[in-house]
Amino acid sequence: MDDLDFSGKPGVPPKPTAAPPARAAEPASLYSPKLALEFFSIDGTPEQFAAGKRIFAENEKAGGFFAKGARIYLLLEGEVTLTLKDKPLEMVLPGEIFGEMATIADLPRSATAMARKHCRVLALDERQFQQSLQQMPEFALMLMSVMTQRLRRSIAKLATARKESVVAPPQKSSLDRKALAELQHELGDPAPTRAQAGQNVLTQGAVGACMFVVTEGRIAISIDGRVIEHVGPGGIFGEMALVDRAGRAATATAETDSAWLLIARNDFLAMIRSKPAFGMALLRSMGERVQHIGALLRAGVQTT
C-alpha cells in the first residue's frame, strides 16, 4: 500500500501550455457559449452597464453563494476589461462568463471588471444559480472543464517556478459532516479507504480513475516534491483527472493517518447530473484551488 492510487501505471505528465491572452482562446470543446446562454436564460436577471462603469473591483468580497450580493455574469453585448493593479489581464467578449471564480469559492475578487463598451449581461445570484443547475447540471461539468484547463496551465507554470518557500494553507472543507454522511450513503455506504502517515495516495503523472473525498486526517498535495496545499476532512482532490481524463497534476501524500471515500468516474458523472449540491461542492473546491494557485504565481514567484 505504498501507493494507493488505483488508477494504473504512471503516464506522461501533461505538457505546459501557454496561457491565452483572453478567454476567447479557450478551446471551443470545453466552453460552449450556447450552453452558457441556455443556462443563464433559465433564471438570469438582465442588467446593463454604461461604458466606463465598474462592475466589481479587485479584492472586493464577492460574498460567495451564501451572500445576497453574489453575482456571476454572462456577457450578451459589449466588452468587459479585466485588470489587476491597473494592468490589463484579459478581455471578456459576448458569450463569455466572468466573476465566477471568486463568487463560487467565496473569496475576494482577483481582478477589476470594467465595462469597456456599453454592456448587457445576464446575472445569477445564489438562488438563481442553484435553480438553473437543477435544470441543467451539465453546465457544472462544462465549468469544471474550464477550471481544470486553467488549473493545468497554472500548475505547469508553478512547476517551473523558483521560490524558496510556498505558503500552503489547508483547503476549505467543501463538504460538512452531514454532507459527507449523505455522500457515503449515496455511494452505497462503502468503508473509507485508509492510509498511514507517509503513504502516497496518488502520484503525479499517473492515470486517474477516481477522485477522493477526505473523511479523516490530512493530505499534502505537492508538485515536484513541493507542497502547495493541504486537504482535510470534507476536502476534495483528484477530480481534475476525471474531468479531462489527463494525468494526475500532482502527488498526494497522507501527512497523518487518513481516510477517504473513492468516487469512480461513472459515479462522479451520475452525481453531477442528479445532485446539484454535489456539483456545487466540486465547483467550490476547484474555484478555491484556482484562486490559491493563482495567488502563488502572483506572489513574487519567478518562472523560468
Describe the 3D structure.
The protein is of the alpha+beta class. It folds into two domains: 23-139, Jelly Rolls, CATH 2.60.120.10; 165-303, Jelly Rolls (Sandwich), CATH 2.60.120. 32% of the residues lie in helices and 26% in strands. It is built from eight helices and 18 strands. A hairpin with a 2-residue loop joins strand 13 and strand 14 (226-231). Helix 1 (33-43) crosses helix 3 and helix 4 packs parallel to helix 8. 39% of the residues are buried. Mean pLDDT is 82; it is low at 1-29 and 64-68.
Entry keywords:
304 residues; alpha+beta; Jelly Rolls; 2 domains; four-stranded antiparallel sheet; 32% helix; globular
Order of helices and strands: HEEEEEEHEEHHEHEEEEEEHEEHHE
Q: So, the CATH homologous superfamily of the largest domain? A: Jelly Rolls
Radius of gyration: 19 Å
Approximate helicity band = 25-40%
- Low-confidence segments, given as residue ranges, are 1-29, 64-68
Q: What characterizes the major β-sheet?
A: 4 strands, antiparallel
* Secondary-structure arrangement, i.e. CATH architecture of the largest domain: Sandwich
Tell me the strand order in the biggest sheet. Answer: 1-8-3-6
Distance between the termini: 36 Å
Per DSSP, the total helix count is 8
Alpha-beta classification: alpha+beta
